[in-house]
Each structure stands twice: as C-alpha cells, then as structure tokens.
Design brief:
With 333 residues, this protein is of the alpha/beta class. The protein is 36% helix and 14% strand. It has a single domain, classed as NADP-dependent oxidoreductase domain (TIM Barrel), CATH 3.20.20. Strands 3-4-5-6-7-8-9-10 form an 8-stranded parallel beta barrel, surrounded by 5 helices. It has a two-stranded antiparallel ribbon with strand order 1-2.
C-alpha cells in the first residue's frame, strides 16, 4: 500500500480507502462486514469512509464495532452529514442544528471522540453557507473534527465557500469527495484545476463505475445474481445508466489492456483514477475480503501514456465529462 497526503495537509491517507456506502448494514451482515474491515487493515488500508445516512445510520454503527480495539491513531476515519437521518424537519441539510447534532450522533455510533475528516455530503441551497461553515469551524475548534471537506460540489460552490472561510478566518476545506472513474469524468474540467490551486485533494468514490469497469457485466446477458445491478436497496438504480450494450461492449475491450499491464480489470479501473495527481485516495467497497485483496493491488501502479491513451480510445465518447452533471438534490424535496 502506498500513501498520499490529503490535499496540502500534513495528514497521509492510504491510496485505497475502504468505504461502506451500500454494504455495511445493508448488503452485508455485521460479521462479514467486520471481516472485510479487518482484511482492509491487514492489507495496509488505513482510511475508512462512511456517512451518517448509509443504511439508515447502521453503517456507522457496524464500522465503529469493526474498528473497536484498533489503535485510534493508526487509521483515518471519515464521515459525512447532509442527507436525512430521521423523520424530523431538521434531521437533514446543513443547518447548524443538524450539523452539530449529527456529528455528536456519528461520534457515538463510531465509538470515537473525534472524526479525522468531516464532510458536507452535498451543497445545501436552503441554509446560508456561512452558517454551515461556521458550524464546521466550531467542530474543529472543539476538537471533535480534525479536517473538513465536501462531496459533489461545483467549482463555483467551492470558490464561494473558500472566500467565506478566508474572510472569516475559518478553517479551510481540504478535501473533495466526487464520483470519478474512466466513465465519469465531470470533475476534470473545473473542480480539479480549482482544487489543485487551493490545496484540496480528491477522495473519489465509485472508481469502478459501480462495478461496470470490473467487467462482470456482459452485453446481452443478465446481471450476475447478488451483484450491484441486482441490488434494489440502492445499487441497481445508480448503475442502470451504464447497463447498456454499447458501454458494456466497450468495457469488454479493456480486458486485453488490463492483461498487458498485468492487472485485473478492477485493478486497472482503480489504478486509472490514481494516475490523477489531485486524487489523494480511491474509495472501494467490498462484500467479501477477497475483493479487498484484489483491489489493493492497484496501489502504487503506474500506467504509462500508451495505456492511458488506449483506454481513452476504447471508451471514446462514452465517458460523461459535463461539469453540469455535478448536482446536489434538495434533501427536503
């Protein structure tokens, strides 16, 4: 496992992070989830990403149990706030009330006294930005949070926040958590250049495009039983945009490219995002330990210019690159 600095901070994170978005408390039972976390630690993964909303807060609880007894200083713990965590009108969004209450609840579920990176899970159009940033700054000053970041913000939203933080003397954002893969490149045109300038690192999710880039889905055939595409509790909806024969046929052509590099298709997909120097870490999920053992081998891999060019040629115009696709739905809608 290789390690990179998170943006311009002094904190290092593992190139591969372990995330439990659709798995813990949902797809995977607690015992299996704990085995995956232990395997991740054994493989050198030190960075763990979750969110209060995952599996209706159960994901944080499972992760807290899995990490219990592990020396707290030896790993980096990330979580997020924004999406609904309860039925109440204030159980969502980025109001000061919800941020502070959600952070305290996350600390209890994760069985820790601090969060290494606390992130705004989307942009809240209803709450004044200054209110949200002030609350995040207070959490840092209280020692409950070490660093702060955001997920799926546009370049304009990032710039607006940084100006307020600089004008008010607040702690600055150090991370961005966007979706990023060889098929989903919407951050490249605006978010990445701004982030490089401002010392913000990307912690990317879905580097395998919800599993499509692993090559497990074959054009003209049903999705394998138990795969993300058959998970009606969360995975099937998002992966549906890629479950087209033109996409799956193109992805199949990546296999010889992966083989020429001595990689599996999953490893190639993860290695691809890590070639972007603004990426601090790539988040992978897993339903079984063997998947983690395979994916961590993408760390430290250098893909030469010819391989990168070949991937672009195979995928052609299929990748989504429009920055306008980076949106934040209203959690109250």
């Amino acid at each position: 496992m290789e390690y990179r600095r998170l943006g311009s901070t002094g904190m290092y994170v593992s190139e591969i992070s372990y995330g439990n978005w659709i798995t813990h408390g949902s797809q995977v039972e607690a015992d299996a989830a704990i085995k995956c976390v232990k395997t991740a630690l054994d493989c050198g993964i030190t960075t763990f990403d979750t969110a209060d909303v995952y599996a209706g807060t159960r994901a944080e609880t499972v992760l807290g149990k899995a990490l219990k007894g592990v020396r707290r200083e030896s790993y980096e713990l990330f979580t997020k706030v924004y999406w609904p965590t309860g039925p109440g009108k204030n159980d969502r969004g980025l109001s000061r009330k919800h941020i502070i209450e959600s952070c305290n609840a996350s600390l209890k579920r994760l069985q820790t006294d601090h969060i290494d990176l606390y992130q705004m899970h989307r942009f809240d159009f209803e709450t004044p930005l200054e209110e949200s940033l002030s609350a995040f700054d207070d959490l840092i000053r209280a020692g409950k949070v070490h660093y702060i970041g955001f997920s799926e913000w546009t370049a304009q939203q990032i710039s607006s926040a940084l100006k307020i933080q600089d004008d008010r003397g607040y702690n600055r954002f150090v991370s961005s958590q966007p979706q990023y893969s060889a098929l989903w490149r919407v951050i490249e045109a605006e978010v990445v250049p701004l982030s490089q300038k401002e010392g913000i690192g990307q912690i990317v999710w879905s580097p395998m495009a919800q599993g499509v880039l692993s090559g497990k889905y074959v054009p003209g055939k049903k999705a394998p039983a138990g795969s993300r595409a058959t998970d009606k509790k969360g995975g099937a909806g998002m992966i549906s945009r890629w479950m087209r024969d033109d996409v799956l046929s193109a992805v199949a052509q990546l296999k010889p490219i992966a083989q020429s590099a001595g990689l599996t298709m999953s490893q190639l997909a993860v290695a691809w995002v890590l070639q972007n120097k603004n990426v601090s870490s790539a988040i992978v999920g897993a339903t079984k330990p063997s998947q983690i053992k395979e994916n961590v081998k993408a760390s430290g891999v250098t893909l030469d210019a010819e391989i990168m060019k070949s991937i672009d040629q195979v995928l052609g115009t299929l990748p989504e690159k429009d920055p306008a696709q980076n949106v934040s739905p209203n959690p109250r809608a």
